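STRUCTURE:
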């Protein structure tokens, strides 16, 4: 694999040899998308993640419009389908209940469209096993923020997306001073609304344009809702997005609007993540870091990632344009916890903080020197303006000799460092993930390939410490030390015991802000279905009701796109107990899959699943063709079964209400993304239209 990747990314034999050497020695590991795609000839992106704005392809439509929503979801789907994660800040959309002039009704709000986008993303299985990854954000001033905060209290909702509140400095000041906080939105009747509204409330107000205040709430009350939701369901996280923009190296070029799905990289509209990680374990020799080898590897890694920007396939033309204007790369770490153990330093101790600071400072300086050398060779990034770039707050903290070099030669990459979670690639390298402490000495890992019990290879070392043994304050202090030397951001989760309180999370979030972090996420053990669990208990088996010898029922005939179906529904106490479906010839594929659906429906009914929930799942499933018109229109065999079940249930004196999405299979690309939009049936994936 490493030979394939090195050959694909190198521009000459010398580079190929260098790249292969650092990878084969496990000193540098590129991001998973690069490892999966480079040199394979397959049309997948090398970039792990993207940020896209909510905007219409046609500016005349406005960014707070149905066209903008559909265009945004289409772009999201295209990126997800190619293996990339997507971050979206939905603050551009008007709040729930706001008047919509074009249809003479009211808006369903930003959260409803997040839910819709999430459902579209569930159709994506990246590479056959990788689920679509999303980050959805909403600003603290948005009138839908309270709905957004609590949406994941129902863990069945928004399963594809991580959620974070975009937090302003003004809000944090209001919390500290116990002030009132306005939930407001631009006056959508303003004549410049469609042309100029892009989701930045400060920019809108700076122009003197009016807003509508929907509600005033004590800032601490809103803050408490955020931390309580995080205690209950581990979300939302918080991203101090105003701070992020103030500290951004590209402050004079563009605004950071969202982070990527794991939160380590804040990006401008159409920005991309180009990730790789230094494996610190490979540089520990006799309990110390070999800094000479480390700095040389950093230099090679920066060159590697810069090459990726010119060689990688881009999903959207806007991605390529933005990536090559700024030439962002994201070099980070993996194996920090294991390296500290090998150095006999307890993760989170004062000694470990000092050692980590020295490591990341040396990496920062080596990375910036390498980028200056690339600028000498290939030129600086196109948007580089020396006097403005050098005024950046992060840049002003660089050593004087590096700043002098930047002033003279420029710099190849606008930003260079980020700290990604490195989950899969750290497993590949056999070291701890990113900058996180090890979860436990022994744990059960549940993933899509099964359940695995793992004992850590350093579990018996004296300095080993698990994530739950590190205090919350130590977690945050470690993140803050790293953030000081990383120009982008950090993906880190503060793992908490089940006994942690709401106040504990309140203190963690406040401390993160006070120490200069750009964002923070917590996970309280047991607060949601996690990837890792420290203990396992036998699950109680679902009780299946025995079938009586005799049942009464009805049989319904219904036409489907695949032929006539006969649906038999047997009842107990006027409620469906089992379902049989006959369609097609015995032994045919059609007969087989309909029998399978019927058996599963019957098992669910006998196991206590509500019939309304089963109907909800079936009605509205679309296929390649349909039959019938109006209320009698049948979209597929599952849709037909769902409608027959609903009809039979209603005939027993019951009522059921189902909201169908009416998503069909596109006849061109085969994706379940064929929807009605603006009076025309259009595919959100490939763009095919019946009009």
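SEQUENCE:
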């Amino acid at each position: 694999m490493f030979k394939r990747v090195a050959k694909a990314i190198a521009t000459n034999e010398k580079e190929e040899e260098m790249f292969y050497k650092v990878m084969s020695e496990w000193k540098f590991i590129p991001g998973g998308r690069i490892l999966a795609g480079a040199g394979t000839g397959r049309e997948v992106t090398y970039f792990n993640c993207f940020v896209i704005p909510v905007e219409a392809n046609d500016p005349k439509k406005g960014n707070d419009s149905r066209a903008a929503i559909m265009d945004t979801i289409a772009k999201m789907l295209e990126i997800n389908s190619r293996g990339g994660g997507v971050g979206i800040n939905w603050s551009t959309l008007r709040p729930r209940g706001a008047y919509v002039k074009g249809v003479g009704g009211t808006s369903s709000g930003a959260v409803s469209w997040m839910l819709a986008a999430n459902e579209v993303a569930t159709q994506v299985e990246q590479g056959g096993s990788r689920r679509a990854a999303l980050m959805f954000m909403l600003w603290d001033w948005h009138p839908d923020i309270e709905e957004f905060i609590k949406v994941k209290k129902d863990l069945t909702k928004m399963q594809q997306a991580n959620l974070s509140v975009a937090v302003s400095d003004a809000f944090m000041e209001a919390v500290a001073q116990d002030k009132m906080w306005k939930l407001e939105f631009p006056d959508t009747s303003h004549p410049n609304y469609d042309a100029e509204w892009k989701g930045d409330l400060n920019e809108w107000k700076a122009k003197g344009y009016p807003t509508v205040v929907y509600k005033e709430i004590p800032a601490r009350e809103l803050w408490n809702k955020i931390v309580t939701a995080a205690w209950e369901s581990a979300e939302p996280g918080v991203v101090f997005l105003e701070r992020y923009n103030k500290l951004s190296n590209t402050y004079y070029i563009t605004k950071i609007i969202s982070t990527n799905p794991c939160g380590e990289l804040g990006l401008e509209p159409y920005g991309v993540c180009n990730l790789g990680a230094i494996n610190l374990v490979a540089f520990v020799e006799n309990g110390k870091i070999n800094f000479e080898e480390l700095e040389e590897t950093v230099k090679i890694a920066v060159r590697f990632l810069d090459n990726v920007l010119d060689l990688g396939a881009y999903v959207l033309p806007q991605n390529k344009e933005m990536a090559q204007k700024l030439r962002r790369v994201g070099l980070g770490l993996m194996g920090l916890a294991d390296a500290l153990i090998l150095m006999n330093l307890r993760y989170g101790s004062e000694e470990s903080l000092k050692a980590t600071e020295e490591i990341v400072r040396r990496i920062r300086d080596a990375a910036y020197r390498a980028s200056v050398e690339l600028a000498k060779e290939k030129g600086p990034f196109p948007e580089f303006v020396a006097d403005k770039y050098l005024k950046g707050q992060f840049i002003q903290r660089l050593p004087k000799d590096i700043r002098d070099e930047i002033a003279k030669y420029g710099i190849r990459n606008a930003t260079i460092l980020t700290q990604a979670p490195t989950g899969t690639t750290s497993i590949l390298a056999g070291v701890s993930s990113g900058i996180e402490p090890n979860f436990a000495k022994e744990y059960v890992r549940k993933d899509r390939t099964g359940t695995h019990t793992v004992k850590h290879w350093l579990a018996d070392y004296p300095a080993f410490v698990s994530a739950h043994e590190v205090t919350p304050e130590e977690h945050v202090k470690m993140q803050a030390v790293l953030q000081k030397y990383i120009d982008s951001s950090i993906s880190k989760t503060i793992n908490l015991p089940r006994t942690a309180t709401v106040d504990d999370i309140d203190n963690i979030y406040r401390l993160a802000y006070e120490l200069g972090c750009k964002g923070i996420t917590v996970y309280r053990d047991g607060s949601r279905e996690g990837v890792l669990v420290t203990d396992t208990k036998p699950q109680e088996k679902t009780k299946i009701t025995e079938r009586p010898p005799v049942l009464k029922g009805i049989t319904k005939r219904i036409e489907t796109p695949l032929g006539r179906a006969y649906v038999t529904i047997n009842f107990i106490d006027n409620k469906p107990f089992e379902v049989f479906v006959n369609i097609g010839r015995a032994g045919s594929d059609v007969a087989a899959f309909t029998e399978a659906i019927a058996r599963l429906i019957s098992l669910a009914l006998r196991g206590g699943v509500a019939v309304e929930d089963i109907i909800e799942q079936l009605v509205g499933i679309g296929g390649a063709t349909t039959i019938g018109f109006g209320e009698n229109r049948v979209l597929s065999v599952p849709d037909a079964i769902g409608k027959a079940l609903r009809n039979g249930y209603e005939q027993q004196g019951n009522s059921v209400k189902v909201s169908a999405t009416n998503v069909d299979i596109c006849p061109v690309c085969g994706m379940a993304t064929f929807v009605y939009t603006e009076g025309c049936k259009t595919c959100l994936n490939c763009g095919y239209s019946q009009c």
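REMARK: The chain has a mean pLDDT of 88.
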